[in-house]
Amino acid sequence: MAKPNCTSNTLPPGSCGESTEAPGSPHFEPETSQGGVESHSQPYERFDKSPDNNTLPSSPHSQDTDYHLEQHNAKETESLLAEAESEEDKRQEEEDSDYAPTPKKRKRDICAELEDHIGKGEIEVDDVRKDHSDRSRRVSARRLGQSNIISTSGDRLQQLEEMMTQQGKNITSLKHKVSLERRKRKRLEKKLSMLRSRLAIEVDKGLQED
């Protein structure tokens, strides 16, 4: 068999033993100056699937990258939904203790128990609705009572403020009256002093005439 002419440009790739893979492909291994094959110094970085790792996967294949990214986003979304649901349950339990007979029971557990009792025929749906309606009325009455107490307290505080204002006005009026009485007293004392002086003069004149 004749040896192919490797200097010709018309031969197909790989006829003279060269690599047919293009640079940049995953399996492309360039030759070194010594004729050997250059090996990768570091392997590809593995993607950690733990929820704490927020870094994107560094895979050489786009399909693997999309898969890992979807898995990561799905786990993160599930965690956020679970956390939001837990917070909502806690908020509902704190808002109205009537819907949580025991601190450890959540609304979902209570609903599940009610559905179980209804399915077994132990209680009627109308009884559950009536109980729920009674509880709602009690809650509304309690909240209305609290609102009335707050409103009454506000009215009482306003009344006290008005009383203090009126007392302040009364004190000011009393101070003005005291000031007028003092002035009147001074005028009377002055007139009394003048009358005493005149009386003394008249007495001296009478004594001199005698």
How would you explain this protein's 3D organization?
By secondary structure, this protein is an all-alpha fold. The protein has a domain at about 125-185. The protein is about 65% helix and about 0% strand. It has three helices and no strands. The radius of gyration is 51 Å and the shape is elongated. The termini are far apart. Residues about 35-45 and about 45-60 have low confidence and may be disordered.
Distinctive features:
single chain; 210 residues; mainly alpha; 63% helix; 0% strand; elongated
Distance between the termini: 187 Å
- Outline, from the CA principal axes? elongated
**Rg, please?**
51 Å
Helix content: 55-70%
What percentage of the residues does DSSP assign to strands (E)? under 5%
- pLDDT below 50 for ≥5 consecutive residues: which ranges? 33-45, 47-59
Give the tally of β-strands: 0
**Oligomer class:** single chain
Entry summary:
The protein is mostly helical and 210 residues long. The chain is built from three helices and no strands.
Task: Provide the fold topology.
Blueprint: H1 62-95, H2 107-120, H3 125-209
